[in-house]
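Today's session is about reading a structure prediction critically. Students often jump straight to the picture, but the first step is always the sequence itself: look for stretches that repeat, for charged clusters, for runs of hydrophobic residues. Only then move on to the predicted structure, which in these notes is written as discrete structure tokens rather than atom positions. Here is the chain we will use throughout the hour.
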Amino acid sequence: MKTSFRLCPHQACMISLFLAQCLIAVGTNVQRQLRRSSAAATVQKVSLRSSTGATDGASSTGMTHLVATVLDEGRLQAHELKKASEGMNMEDAMRHLNWRLPTEVASLVHLTSRGKAKNSGDYSEDSLQKARKLLNTMVESAQRDLDEVVLGCETVKTANRQAFEQVERDVAMMGAELSDTERVRVSGNEGIAQQDRQRKEIEDSQMQKEREFKAKWLEMKHEYNLRKNDYSVFSYMIEMTKCKSSFLQLNASVSGTSSRSLRSTRLKTAQHTGFLCNGDGGIEFRFGDPAMQAKMERLLTPPTKLALNKVLQEFQDSEAEELVQLSNKVARTVTTSSTTPLLPTEPPDVLPVYEDVSSRTMAKKCVGDYDCGFLHDTMALEWGKFKDMLDSIKAEMDRQQGEHDRIMSTFNRELSVIGNMKTTSMEKLAEATSKLNALNEEMAEKETQRRELNKDYEEHRRECHKQVSEIVWGKIVGLTCIRNTLMKDSTVTPPDKIEDCEVSDWVPDECLKEDGHLLLCDDSCPQQDPFKCGGTQVVRRKVTQQPNQYGTQCPALSNQRKCNQRKCPVDCVMSMWSGWSKCTKECDGGVQVKTRSVLQKPKHGGRECDTVQEERPCSVGSCDRDCKLSRWSQWGPCSMGCSVEGSYGRQMRSKKVLVPIRGQGRCPRKWSRSRRQVRRCNKHECMGDEVCIAQQDLIIALDASGSLKKDGFETLRDFAATLVGRFKDEYFGIPAMKVGVLLFGNGHLQASPYGESVISPAIPVQPLTNDMDAVKQKIQAQTWQKGFTNMAQAFTLADKMLSQGGRQSAQSAVLVLSDGKYSFEQETASKAAALKDKNVMILMAPITETAGPELKVLKFWASKPSVSNFERIDGLEALKENGDMFAQRLIVKFCPDAVSMSALTAQEDQAAFMRIREDGFPDGKCSSKHQRIGRRRSIEDCADAARELGFSAFSFRKTRRHGICVGQVITFDTNLYNTWQANRRNPSCPSGNWRFSPFYDTYVLKPEA
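Below is the predicted structure for this chain, in token form.
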């Protein structure tokens, strides 16, 4: 048998090769059996007359059906064989056999077909039996050939269909992947278009913001230049009005030529001589030097000129008011020296001595004694306002620049994000395009494989059909038909006595490797030699009808075939899920996403991949949310230790915002009643002898500016000394107050090494010390500085002094005693904020009769709450007359631990015990015996228990395991008790010493009289 096939690179090639080799083997076996049968007899060609109707013995439909049944079921059913053989005549059988039979059989067939046997006796029973045996042998040989062909075809069919199913599943998965990849490609294109639109919108907004900022910045720059010119004028005036001596040196007669001047005052400055002239336009300042006058005229602008006139007018009004007050004081002190009453007399005729003075004459006169320090400080206040305006504009320009930079940075970040998103979209598009190309190429390859597999399947199916048809019809059916026809003439073995063997369908065993292990698939397939891949499978069948001696014998009941010649399916492998992403919206419903990646794509019909992304809703609440407040805090400390003239202390509690508002939500204001409550406290009247025993490092900043005047500074200086007298450096053996002093108000401009003018620093008077007498002496030795108010420099020096001499465990504070005026608001506010950031308390005590708007600024600079750290004193006159009262008010308000000695003594006398040591425990020499009494609720209960047990003193634990009471035996008498009560600074421990203990305070019981 000659079979041709082609080699191919895919799995169909293996099937083609396998089928070809099976068919070659079948053809070789059939030829071998025919040669074996021909050895006993000569095969001759029987020539029969053919007719046109002879070929219709078996219709083509019946032949096709029978072959298909054999191919499907793997065997030729007995009833099908019987039906087919009965429907075939001798001529059809011979035609299917190609007219080739053994000689003995051929002669019988020839005689039978001619109808001559019974007449001539040409064959006997022996010849019939011999023919039966030959025909049975040929049928059995054909049956073996049929088994080999059917098994071979089934093997090829199984391998082909398995490969086809894998290709089909791969095609289906690639189709789904193509669809998803196409969606990604479309999404990438849409993303690029959307990001281009967003970029255009942001760039347009950026250009609009840039134009708006440039217009606004140019406007502020123009305003800044104007303010800078005004500032230059007052800087020049500050330099010109600086005092050389204590007061302006007056010239009794100064000639002038200005017709507008009504009055001029000559003042001696550091370098130049100038005049204050009262003209039609108000008070004016004129230099004697024409060059200096011309320079000032160049600098003056209309707004600056008005501001300068206003300052000079205020200065003149203040001087006039002071002169009136001085005159009133002098008038009250004048008395007559004569005790004789004057008699009434006739008024004499009096002639005028001189004429009224004209305005022209007054312009040539200078009267009055003006204070240069006051003028310098007044000028400095206005200069400070212009500097604040200049700094404010500069700060606003910087803020606007920073805000613009922030907006531009935001725009740039958004553009960067959009650029990154566009890059991502482009990468997604490129990846999707590349993937689509690869998938399309792979899909085309799979489609080619599918077509070729189908083509090979159909070709091999036709080939199998042809081979099975030749064996079934050309051998088995034809030989059976001839045998049964011949045996009709046999008396021994008629057809009804012949029983052929019948078997069941093939039943396959497991597919095994060469080593006997189970084989499900083989990745080495396909190969050029199909027998070198896959496993081996044994197929078995059973005998359903045993043959008798006249029928065909049973074929082999087991056989082998190749199996599972397919690649192993590769399932999809995916990574672990990522965590849930941040919600896309904070409210009104957003989405959270988690993703995973494909680590291994499925192949060869493996399990498909599941979704790579999952979503869930989040932040489903409304965007409109009210704030959530905390519970009420504990009541804060009382602002005053006692009540002074109806002024009570106040304490406050508040609620914090735990969850802020969102959208259109509502929240009470910080100072509303819903969030802040205030109540009175310490309503008892002060005793007047309160002292401060707090552990505090205090810097007293004393104002010595020109606006205070000499008498005002001396009043403020004496008050500061009085206040220091109420500070205690030690109490019950524990260090208490440390006080330092600095002086400000000495402000003037001085040249810096960099060529710019700077403000002179504040003056350090006394570093932090616990020697209160030395502090008082240093304060009393200070003199009036007559400069402008450089409070910012005072804060800078206070910070330095606290850092050099402050204690880690003590509270740091700065007490500002001033007349309530300040210069350079911006700079001072910055320094105050820096101090508060370091947890330094700022205590403000302005001395002023009027509550002007500047007090709001001072109150803002004071530490919070201002009710506890701000106290206004009603003017210098009130301070001079009631210094002790105001000192008491500051002590009870500003001191964290203020006590009244008289009230404390009365309380101790009533309780019959007193504390003599804080944070201390007596040693064995001071206390001859100590015994733990137990835990008591209060100090009073501990005192009662110690008195009942006969102890003279006791120690009470105040921290950790609070309430432990320890009885002590300390020897003392009434005189020593009174001494302790009179001097609480550092009471001694009789006959011994104190041991430091932060857990215990020690008390003594009052001796009985």
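Discussion point for the tutorial: The mean pLDDT is 78.
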